Fold these 2 entries.
Entry 1:
Amino acid sequence: MNLIPWKNKSVEEAARGVGPMSTLRADMDRLFENFVREPFGAIDWPFGGAAGWSPAVDLAETDAEYTVRAELPGLEPGDLDISVTENRLMLSGEKKEKTERTEKGVYHSESRYGSFCRSIPLPGAIDSSNVNAEFKNGVLTVHLAKSPENTPKRIEVKVAEG
Amino acid sequence: MLDQQTNVSEQSPSCEETRSDRCYRPNVDILEKENELYLVADVPGALADKIDVDFADGVLTVHAPVEPASDDGRRYLVREFGKGDYRRSFRVSEQIDPSGITAEFVDGVLTLHLPKAESVKPRKIAVRAS
C-alpha cells in the first residue's frame, strides 16, 4: 500500500505516465508542440474530437528538388489526392476502416480514421509539370523538381585583369 | 492500462533496454470478433520481410524495422516524423491460443489475429426435448 496523500495522487500518476491526468497532459503537450512547430498551420486539435486527423509530414530539399514524405498507413494509392500549385502541395484523402467495428467490441483504439486534408507550403517555386509521387508500405514520397529560376546557380568570380 | 477483459494488455519492458537507436511505439487498435481478438498496428514505412512478431512467456512483441535513412545531401525544412524501428509489447492472457497467432502486413498496417482458446469460445448447448 502506498501512502500518498490524495491531493498528490494525480501528480504521482502523471509522473508515472498513467491515469487521466497524464492523458490530458500528453494532449496538452502535443498541442503546444504543434503550435510551436507550425504556428500558422492547421492546428491539430486533440482531445479525441471527430475533427479528423492530419498525417505527419517531412519536407526536405536538395539543390534540384523538394521531397515531401507523409505517413499514411492503411491508405491505398487510390484513396489519395495530390495536387500542386507553384508553391504549395495539397494532400487529401480518406483513411477507410477495413475492419468491422460493429461486430463485438473495440477494446482499445488509437488509430485515427476518416478524411484528412493538408496543405504544405513550399519555400520556393517548383516546376509543376515535373512532380512524381510514389507510395510504399504506407509512406507517400512526392518529388517536386524546383523550377529552373529557383535552383541555385554557381557564380564564378573572375579575377579582374589590370 | 487496458481493460482487464481484453485478454491483451500492454507490457512495459521488465528491464531497462539498452538500445542505441530510437524506437517508436506504433498506434494500435484492439478489437474482438467471436473467435478471435485482433490487433491493428500502424507501422508506416516498415519493411514487410523484416517484421518480427515474437511470443514468449505470455508476452507478444512486435518489432518492425524501417528502411535505414538515406538522406544523402538532403536538408530538412520540416520534420514531423523521425525514422526508427517500431516496437511494442503486449501481455496476452491464457485465453488466447498462442500457436494460432497469425499476422499480415498491407500498406503500412500490420494486423495480428489472436485466436481465442477453445475453452473460452462461446458454445451453444442444444436443448433436447424429452
Entry 2:
Amino acid sequence: MNHPKCKTHIVVIGNGMVGHHFVEQMVEQNPLAEITVLSAEPRLAYDRVHLSEYFTGKSADDLAMTSPADYEQMNVSFHLNAKVTQIDKAFKTVITESGESFNYDKLVIATGSYPFVPPIPGNDQEHCLVYRTIEDLEAITASAKVSKTGVVVGGGLLGLEAANALKQAGLETHVVEFAPQLMAVQVDAGGGRLLKHKIEELGVKVHTQKATEVIEAGENARYKMCFKGGDFLETDMILFSAGIRPYDNLAREYELEVGERGGIVVNNFCQTSESDIYAIGECALWNNFIFGLVAPGYTMARVAAEHISGGDLQFTGADMSTKLKLMGVDVGSIGDAHAKTAGALSYVFENQPEGVYKKIVVDAKQEKLLGAVLVGDNSDYDTLLQYALNGIDLPEFPESLILPSDASTAPALGADALPLSATICSCHNVSKSDIIDAVTDGNCQLADVKSCTKASTGCGGCAALLKNVFDAELEKRGIEVKKDLCEHFAYSRVELFHLIQVGRIRSFSDLIEKHGQGLGCEVCKPAVGSILASVWNEHVLLPDHISLQDTNDTYLANMQKDGTYSVVPRIAGGEITPEKLIVLGTVAKKYNLYTKITGGQRVDLFGARVEQLPLIWEELIEAGFETGHAYAKALRTVKSCVGSTWCRFGVQDSVTQAIDLENRYKGLRAPHKLKMAVSGCTRECAEAQSKDIGVIATENGWNLYVCGNGGMKPRHADLFATDLDTPTLYRYIDRVLMFYVRTADRLQRTSVWMENLEGGLNYLKQVVIEDSLGICEELEAQMQHVVDSYHCEWTSVTKNNQSRKRFRQFVNSDQQDNNIVFVEERDQIRPATLAEKSQIQQRDNQELAMDISIVEIESDLA
Amino acid sequence: MTNQWTTVCKIDDLVDNSGVCALVEHNQVALFKVVNNDNIHIFAVSNWDPVGQANVLYRGLVGSSAEQTLVISPLYKQRYCMSTGRCLDDENISLQTYEVRQEGKDVQLKLVR
C-alpha cells in the first residue's frame, strides 16, 4: 500500500485513551501530518481503565499515557482546557469555548462518553458525584473525607469498580441496582447470584431491583434515598455509575447524523455523515452499537488513521469479551454469554463452597465455543477466549474445559494449538504470527518483543498468554534461557567479576584468552571494561582498555546525534564560584558551544567536534575543573539543596556533605550510572529519594535511602538506616555500592538490582549492617582502593601526546567533518536538520556556480 | 577505469582493535586494525553511518560474531560485517567497503576511478 505522505492538517477533538491512540497511529503512518489536539480536560491522556488505582496510591502522573514533552517530540500541537463548541463544516474550522479557531483538512471526534445520571429528583446536590475523570476522583476523595456511608447507583462493571474505590476510602459501601442482578450485560443470572454473594462477603451491601424515586435530606446521614415500594437507604454521598452516554452534542448541533439513542453514526472507515469528519471510540455509533471498551476504540483509531493516510483498513465490529478483577473477585465474560444464539447449548459448573461459577455456551452441534461466563476463577479465560475467537474445534467432552481436573488431565490449549492468525493482544491487534516474526527478527527478550510489537502494553490482560507464546517459540528454536553475557563468554557478569578478581586478570585479551572466545562485542567489551575499572581502576584509555569502551567512554564525552560531543565538567554538589562560571561561559563562547543546565546541577556544553575536546579540556583543567564522568557508567552527580548554612529550615550542612560524598565516590565505575543527592531537612528539596543513594538530614544525623531512581521507570528509594553519623554513613554507602558493583547484572540500575535480590531490602540490611556474609571489611577495602586511586581522566589525556592523537577526525588531514552543520536557535547553535543541510548545500552550490560563471566570464574577457 | 593503490596513512596511525578515519579524495574512510593472536588484519569501510546519518563509524566498537569481524555503530549500535559491509541488523543497509593493504609502513587503499 502506498500512502501519500502529504501535509494534511488534522484536528482531534478529545484526548482520552482513544484520541491519544489515534495521535500515535497517525504520527506513525504519516509523520508529516500536522496534528492539533484540542482537549476539554486539563491534562493529556491518562489510563482510565486503571482509574481505580488512583485510590490505591497511583498519582495522576502514574496514570498518564503521554506527556507534553512526548507530544512536542512527535510534533503534535495540543491545547488543554480547550473545549470545542462550534464546527464550521463549510470553512472546515472548529472554534473553542475561548473563541480560538482551528482549520482542519480532516477532523476526528474522539469526545468519548459521559456518565449517565438517572433523572431522580435531588440528584444534583453536593456529594452526588460521578466516576469518570481524575477530577471526579479528586471530588470523590474530598467527599469521602466528610462522609461515613457511600452508595453507588449502578451495579455494572464501572459501578462495582466505583464501589471498590469507596470501600477503600473507608466508607460503609452500598450498591443499588435497578436490574435483578449485578453486571447484567456480561454475566448470566447464575453468575450474577454468585457475584453478589462474593461481593457482600467483602463487606459491600448489594441492593438489587431497587428504583430510586427521590433523594431527600436524611435523618441519620446526609441524604435519604427513597425507593419505589417504600424502602429507603440513608447515605452521606451518592456516586452515579448507571452507564455511559456518548458525548455527541457537537454532532447533534452541527448536523452530523446521530443514532436514535445517541452516538455519532460512522461507516466502516469511521467516517461520519460528513466524509472529512471521523468519529472514534465511545462517541461513535457503528452498526447501531456503541463500543464501551478500549480495545475496539483503539481499532477505530487505527482505522481512521489508516483511512486518512490513504489506506483501506475497515472496522468490522469487535469482540466484547472482558476479563477483570473486581474487589479481588475474578469475572470473565466471553462472546455470547447469555446463550442468545439459536440452538445454543450450555454447560454449567458451580462450586458454592469455594465461590466458583463457570459456564460455557456452545453451538447446537457442540463443535464450537460461542461464549462463556466465569466468576471467582478466571484461570480458564485465555484458553476459552482463544477457542471462541479462533473457532478452534471443541474437545470431545466440552465440559472438560471447565470441570476441575488435576493438571495432568486438563486439556490445556498450549500456544502451539493456536492458529497463526490468533489475536494475542486485542488492544494493539497483535497476532501470534506477529510475535513469531518478532522472535525471528532476533528479539529474544520478552521486553523486546513487547516494545517492537506493542503486545501487552495496552490493558495488559494478555501478558500471560504472550509469555506462553513467546516461551513456546523460544523453546521450539532450541533457545535456552541462559545467563551468558553473550556469544563470547559463557558466564554472567557476576561470574566474570569473580574470574577477574580472583584470577587477578587485568586485560580483556587475557580474559578472553582464558575464559572466552572470538573478538568480543558491544555487550561484553564495555561490561568487562567496567569490571576492570571497578576492580583495578586503571585509566580507561590505556592501550589495553581503549578498545573496550562504549561510545561515550572512548572519547570521554557524550556523543550526540550528529557525531559531535557534549562536555560536562564536575561541579561537586552543584556549588560553583562566579570565576568558574565565567570560565564555562568563556570556553563555550570561544568554541561556539550550546550550553544547558542539567538536572544534576551542572552545565552541559554541546557541539564540540572530536578534535576540539582536548583543547576545551585543557582550558577547563587550567581553570581548576576536572572530568564529570557524564560519559561513564559511574557516579554522576551528588545533588544538594543549600542546607543549614543559608536555609531557614535546614538542620544539617547538606552542601558540604554532598561535596564530600561526590569527591569520595567520583570515578567509581559501576554496572550502570549512579546518582546521589543530599537534602538538608525533611522538605527534601534535593529529591534524594529518587536517587541510587539518597541522604536526608535529621536533627540527629543523616537518614540513608538506597536504590531509587527517576527515568523511564521511577522508583522511590528505600529507607535503609536512620540518624547515622558521617563515618557510619560512608561505611554503609561504601558497602552498599561495592556489593552492587560486585553482584549486579550489566546495565542493571540499583533499583532493579535490589528488586531482584533474593530477600530484598532486609537481606541487603543484613549484609551491610549486620555483616551476615562477613565481607564488609573486604567491600570497604575495595572501595578505599578506588577512592585512593582516583585520577581525572581528562587531566591524564591532555598531558599525553599519544592519547591526544586519538582525538581527531582524520589521521591524514586537518580538515573538519563537513557533515557537521549548525544553525541558530534562540541565540545558540543547534544541529541543522537534514532539510536545512540540503538547503544550505544548495545555496553553497549556487554560490559556487556563480563564482565559476564569473570566472568564466572573466576568462572570456581576457 | 583503472585501479590504483593509494597510500592514505602510516601503519602507526592505526590503533589496535579500534578505528581511525582517513580523508581520501573527499571520501571519509574508516580504517580498523584487528589484532587476534598475532594475526593482524586491516579493514576499510565508509565512515558514513547510514542510520545515524553522521560520519562516525570509525569511533565504533570492534567485535565479532561467529566468524565475521564487525564494527558496531557508536550511535545506534547496528552491527556491520567489515569484510562485506553487510548490516547484520537490517538487510536493506550496507556499508561501502574498500580493498586495503599494508605496504611497508604505509596503509594503502585500492581506489576505483
